[in-house]
């Protein structure tokens, strides 16, 4: 059995939104990541991934986004052994000023360029890869 998690690669003014996960978090506490969270069980429903992402953006950082497109999916195992399927979407910032709205989940926010993320040796490879893919999709969309 898997937990399903969604994340948003949010782009605004040439930078990507990252959160510093709360040290209270069970998995990857204190590390930088994209904004996102677990999909809740809802029975028979539609657009659950998108609605979850919108909810997480509001709950964690107080912003609204436009979901542009799917980036990729992967799986990982949390520090406590829980298996997770993670789905990343490319998002455009629509409104609101991002801030650490949920202190139990977010200790801070930071906006970084693609280069700052890729060249940061402290960031995990999967985060760098997600940003590279999102950046490539964003550039492709601009060129069309």
Structural class designation? alpha+beta
* Strand segment count: 7
Count of discrete structural domains: 1
Described by strand count, sense and barrel closure, the largest sheet is: 7 strands, mixed
Q: Whole-number average pLDDT? A: 91
- The fraction of residues assigned to DSSP E strands is 35-45%
Describe the structure in your own words.
Strands 1, 2, 3, 4, 5, 6 and 7 form a 7-stranded mixed sheet that branches. The protein is of the alpha+beta class. It has one domain (3-143): Alpha-Beta Complex (Nucleoside Triphosphate Pyrophosphohydrolase). The longest helix has 19 residues, at 125-143. Helix content is 26%, strand content 40%.
Could you write a compact summary of the structure shown?
This protein is α+β, with helices and mostly antiparallel strands. The chain has three helices and seven strands, in the order ββββαβββαα. The chain has one domain (3-143): Nucleoside Triphosphate Pyrophosphohydrolase (Alpha-Beta Complex), CATH 3.90.79.10.
């Amino acid at each position: 059995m898997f937990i399903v998690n969604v994340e948003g690669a949010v782009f605004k003014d040439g930078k990507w939104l990252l959160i510093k996960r709360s040290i209270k978090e069970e998995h990857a506490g204190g590390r930088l990541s994209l904004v996102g969270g677990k999909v809740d069980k809802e029975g028979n429903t539609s657009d659950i991934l998108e609605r979850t992402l919108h909810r997480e953006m509001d709950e964690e950082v107080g912003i609204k986004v436009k979901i542009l497109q799917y980036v990729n999916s992967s799986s990982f195992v949390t520090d406590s052994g829980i298996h997770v399927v993670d789905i990343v979407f490319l998002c455009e910032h629509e409104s609101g000023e991002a801030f650490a709205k949920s202190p139990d989940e977010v200790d801070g926010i930071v906006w970084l360029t693609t280069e700052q993320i890729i060249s940061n040796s402290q960031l995990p490879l999967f985060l760098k890869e997600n940003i590279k893919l999102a950046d490539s999709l964003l550039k492709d969309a601009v060129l069309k």
